[in-house]
């Protein structure tokens, strides 16, 4: 069982509770205009556009495939900016055992692992195998296994994942389906269904709302949004503040969310009975 890995961060404090190893998988089934990891959306098709543009000659061709030389790479990210596929030539194919090796090295210092992306559940069989292996390992079984997901997974998919997963963190990027489609390229019917499924099973670790001034419809749709959240139970709702750092395209021109923008949404949610709110730790 193998997966395509974009990046591994051994110690992260922003990808779930406590210190966690964050595993970022390559590939996503949304096309969010505000994506802060846009190079994780696509998959390298070995077109070679990035090879001659690498200023450190860390990329080359071998048997028709783009090859990345990690020992030469200076992490300047030129390849990420020029890739027409919104991919990275630095993604690596890794087995469950190889990922477990990284987790074992970090295990004395972390509370769990979070699989993110891209969209983690596009490589569902690997996640299920990885989490099952962690639960069965005497050294690792105390680690919590979380998924950071966009929610575009079928109910059948969640039925496979939930027995080995301790929880999932989901984003609701807009309430109205048309607004969601404009921001992400897809409607949000399946995402809302996923949120309900996770809440019913006690596995919705966190619901996230991203405040993007002038783009999202949370305030305009506050009554149905708050009613939906209230029916989930006492779920933590994280309010994130948009910033343009790292995004591509038109979203680079969007203004970042200020503390006042976030507070306005918080006040509206409080007024409609939603109280378990988590505020941004940082505004850029």
From TrEMBL:
Pfam families: Radical_SAM. Keywords: 4Fe-4S, Iron, Iron-sulfur, Metal-binding, Oxidoreductase, S-adenosyl-L-methionine. InterPro entries: 4Fe4S_Fe-S-bd (IPR017896), 4Fe4S_Fe_S_CS (IPR017900), Aldolase_TIM (IPR013785), BssD/PflA/YjjW (IPR040074), Organic_radical-activating (IPR034457), Organic_radical_activase (IPR012839), Radical_activat_CS (IPR001989), rSAM (IPR007197). It comes from the Bacteria. Residues 43-62, 64-93 form the 4Fe-4S ferredoxin-type domain. Its cofactor is [4Fe-4S] cluster. Residues 14-281 form the Radical SAM core domain. GO terms for molecular function: 4 iron, 4 sulfur cluster binding; metal ion binding; oxidoreductase activity. Belongs to the organic radical-activating enzymes family. NCBIfam families: activase_YjjW. This is YjjW family glycine radical enzyme activase. It comes from Citrobacter koseri (strain ATCC BAA-895 / CDC 4225-83 / SGSC4696).
């Amino acid at each position: 069982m193998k997966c395509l890995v974009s990046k591994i961060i051994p110690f992260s404090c922003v990808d779930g509770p406590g210190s966690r190893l964050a595993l970022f998988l390559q590939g996503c089934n949304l096309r969010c205009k505000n994506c802060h990891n846009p190079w994780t959306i696509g998959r390298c098709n070995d077109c070679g556009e990035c090879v001659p543009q690498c200023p450190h000659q860390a990329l080359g061709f071998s048997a028709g495939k783009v090859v990345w030389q990690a020992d030469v790479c200076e992490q300047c990210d030129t390849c990420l900016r020029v890739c027409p596929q919104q991919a990275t030539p630095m993604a690596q194919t890794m087995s469950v055992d190889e990922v477990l090796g990284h987790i074992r090295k970090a295990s004395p210092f972390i509370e769990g692992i979070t699989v993110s992306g891209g969209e983690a559940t596009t490589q569902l069989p690997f996640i299920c195998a990885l989490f099952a292996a962690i639960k069965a390992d005497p050294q690792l079984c105390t680690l919590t296994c979380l998924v950071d997901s966009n929610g575009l997974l079928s109910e059948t998919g969640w039925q496979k994942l939930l027995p080995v997963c301790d929880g999932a963190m989901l984003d609701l990027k807009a309430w109205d389906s048309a607004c969601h489609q404009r921001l992400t390229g897809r409607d949000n019917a399946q995402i809302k269904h996923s949120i309900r499924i996770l809440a019913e099973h006690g596995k919705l670790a966190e619901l996230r709302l991203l405040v993007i001034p002038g783009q999202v419809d949370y305030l305009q749709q506050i009554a149905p949004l708050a009613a939906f959240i209230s029916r989930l139970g006492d779920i933590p709702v994280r309010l994130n503040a948009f910033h343009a750092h790292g995004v591509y395209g038109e979203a680079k021109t969007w203004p970042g969310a200020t503390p006042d923008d976030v507070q306005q949404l918080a006040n509206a949610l409080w007024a409609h009975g939603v109280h378990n709110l988590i505020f941004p730790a940082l505004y850029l």
